[in-house]
Amino acid sequence: MSDDIEIDTGDLTRRMEGAIAALRTEFASLRTGRASASMLEPVMVDAYGQKTPINQVGTVNVPEPRMVTINVWDKGLVNKVEKAIRESGLGINPQLNGTIIMLPIPELNEERRKELTKVASQYAEHARVAVRNVRRDGMDQIKKAKADSMSEDDQKFWESEVQELTDRYIKAVDETLETKQAEIMQV
């Protein structure tokens, strides 16, 4: 292999890691029947004229396994936070107690668990597509390098490197999905 032409596998790795990180963030928003502060991360509140994450308008706590509380700092935002939670699609009914919003987490039924596993599968497929897009970019880099005098052996070497990287991250996506689905289905 010649030293003059190299493919930046570090960049490809970083981008594939980004796809896995995005998947984990999406999975954190899926409710599993246990209370978690991270389930509120995707919920945005219309505060001060812009969309703001809940954790920037109040303190999110998990005082017990089936309860999340939000202590809203600005009394004028309590109703907006409540509205954002109701419209988020989390299936949680907020209860107001002054500036504290309590979110009791109901037990998931079997039908809802199956729905959530399907949603998790969709998230995982998006992550797989993202990893494959990074693979395609890597293969495009190799094709350009071949046009710029890369040898056949170097081309095959880099293609196998990029493919191994892709396979490793696709496997990580699948393992993360299996773990999440088992967590969702656990009663």
UniProtKB/TrEMBL annotation:
Residues 23-185 form the Ribosome recycling factor domain. It is found in: Cytoplasm. The keyword Flavoprotein does not apply. Pfam families: RRF (PF01765). One of its GO terms (cellular component) is cytosol. GO terms for molecular function: ribosomal large subunit binding. Keywords: Cytoplasm, Protein biosynthesis. Its main location: cytoplasm. CDD domains: RRF. Signal peptide: none annotated. GO terms for biological process: cytoplasmic translational termination. Responsible for the release of ribosomes from messenger RNA at the termination of protein biosynthesis. May increase the efficiency of translation by recycling ribosomes from one round of translation to another. Belongs to the RRF family. This is Ribosome-recycling factor. It comes from Roseovarius lutimaris. The gene is frr.
